[in-house]
Structure formats: C-alpha cells, structure tokens
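2024-03-11 09:14:02 INFO worker-7 job=invfold-0412 stage=load source=structure_tokens
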C-alpha cells in the first residue's frame, strides 16, 4: 500500500513511517521544508511538499495514495484554538480526496477527550464538543466524513506518547520542575493520564490502517491510568527536587497554560483496540521509561 503520512518527520509520524516501510508499504511523506524532505528521502520515503495550511497539497498527497495516516498537528498551545481550526480544515481536505473510494484514512485524536473522570472506552463518543474543547474538532470532522462515505478511523493517543525524542507534555513538566525548583501536582494528585510508547503507537497506526473500519476508534493507551502524582514523584526523584501538592489556584500560576491538562482525570481502556486489531504493546511503560531513561533527564 502507498501511504500518505502527514507529520512524517515528527515524533510519532517518523516512527509510523519506519513501521510502514519495514512491513513492506511505500510512504509518501508531507514535508514542509528541505530538511524534512531530506530526512524522508534518507529513510526511503517519497516526498510531498506542503504543510497543514496548504490544503491543495494535502488533497494532492491523499489523491496519490492508497491510504492516509494523519499524525501532524501544529503544537502551539499558546494559540490552541487557532491550531485546532487548522486541524479541522486539514482533516476535511484530506478526507475530500478520498470521497467515492474505499481507501482508508486514519487520523489522530486523544484519550483525554473521551470521558473525563470516567474510564474511556473506544465506543464512547466524546462528551466534549469543539465549542467546549477545540481539539474535539478532529473527531467531529471524522464523523462528518464517515457520514459522507469516507472510510475513516481515529487513533486516540495518550497525553504522554513517550520514548527517545519526546518533546511533549512530560518533557515540559520536567523543564518546568527545573525552572521552578520543584515538581508539582494538584490536590492529592489522583487524576490519571494514560501513556503509550511511540513505537507501540506506530504499530497501532499501521494496524488501524490495514484493518480500517469506517467510524472505528482505537486507543493508543498501554496503561489505563497513571496518577499524575506518580509522574511528579518520579520527576522529583530524578531531578532531586521536592515534590509539592498545589491548590488549583496555585496550579494556575505554576503550570500556566498547562494547568488544565495537569488536572484532567482521563483514564482510558485499550481492551477493545487489542481485541479488534490484535495490538499488543511491548515497550516500556511511562514510569519505567522515566525511571530508566537518559534522554528525559540529559544524563
């Protein structure tokens, strides 16, 4: 299968590209600059120049492929709503190129959106709308495309997709702890995040594409729920810093724009994903990765 991959040189997307290539697929990767293009060519992928705001390029890439995996996202959390608007337009453009065909498309959402405070399962439609939480636009657009006949599925990734090269929430928490001189959680720190290693996530994307069921939802969650306090404690231990409980008011000042994410309780199951796709995570869990890694703490 010739697969068009957005975010092809990103943390998750680059692992997806390697997963596809080693299992016999061809890859057409989206590249927004010369460096990204050279990276793709070096691993044996083909190049489609463009970015998420170049909708013509997205449509061209999707039209030239047998399937699409969309992992790209503009990670400017200071302008989160605008980034999500870009995401909605990009997903719609990709899907429009697949109308009237049976070619599969797999896009990326998150487990935190599913059912905060309860164990989220794959069949649950998120309770949050894009008006309440802008990132929900991804799944809203997917449902619209599925209703129009696009064979589209969603992989919901954990808030921590971890491993060598991670530059997401956990490295941000580590940097924040260094700057503030403490590792923090809110209240009792019992709110839960899920985690998945990037290599396990890449395997999941391939399986979801190969076995794509329109309207399918799959969870990239190796662990159903890791207490945020546990994450804070291992960061404090590795940095030799105090671990402190903050009030919600203190959290707003300490975490800044991350305060909401630091307090979300978002456990999620991947049982149905494992049963339906045969997905079996095999890499380190988040806490073990943090305890053993050199890459997170520059050791």
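2024-03-11 09:14:09 INFO worker-7 stage=emit residues=299
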């Amino acid at each position: 299968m010739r697969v068009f991959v957005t975010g092809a040189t990103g943390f998750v997307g680059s692992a997806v590209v390697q997963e596809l290539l080693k299992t016999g697929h061809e890859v057409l990767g989206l590249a927004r600059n010369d460096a990204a293009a050279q990276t793709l060519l070096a691993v044996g992928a083909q190049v489609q120049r463009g970015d998420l705001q170049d909708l013509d390029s997205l449509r061209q890439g999707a039209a030239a492929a047998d399937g699409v995996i969309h992992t790209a996202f503009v990670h400017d959390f200071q302008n989160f709503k605008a980034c999500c608007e870009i995401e909605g337009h990009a997903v719609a453009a990709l899907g429009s190129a697949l109308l009237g065909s049976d070619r599969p498309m797999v896009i990326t959402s998150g487990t935190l959106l599913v059912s905060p405070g309860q164990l989220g399962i794959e069949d649950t439609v998120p309770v949050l709308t894009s008006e309440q939480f802008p990132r929900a636009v991804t799944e809203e657009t997917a449902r619209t495309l599925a209703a129009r006949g696009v064979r589209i599925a969603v992989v919901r990734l954990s808030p921590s997709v971890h491993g060598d090269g991670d530059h997401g929430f956990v490295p941000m928490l580590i940097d924040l702890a260094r700057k503030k001189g403490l590792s923090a959680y809110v209240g009792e720190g019992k709110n839960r995040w899920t985690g998945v290693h990037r290599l396990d996530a890449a395997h999941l994307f391939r399986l979801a594409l190969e076995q794509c069921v329109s309207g399918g939802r799959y969870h990239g969650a190796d662990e159903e729920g890791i207490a945020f306090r546990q994450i804070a404690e291992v960061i404090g231990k590795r940095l030799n810093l105090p671990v402190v409980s903050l009030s919600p008011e203190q959290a707003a000042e300490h975490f800044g724009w991350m305060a909401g994410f630091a307090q979300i309780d978002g456990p999620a199951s991947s049982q149905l994903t494992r049963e339906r796709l045969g997905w079996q995570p095999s890499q380190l869990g988040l806490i073990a990765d943090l305890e053993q890694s050199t890459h997170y703490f520059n050791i």
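2024-03-11 09:14:09 INFO worker-7 stage=report msg="The two ends are 41 Å apart (CA to CA)."
2024-03-11 09:14:10 INFO worker-7 job finished
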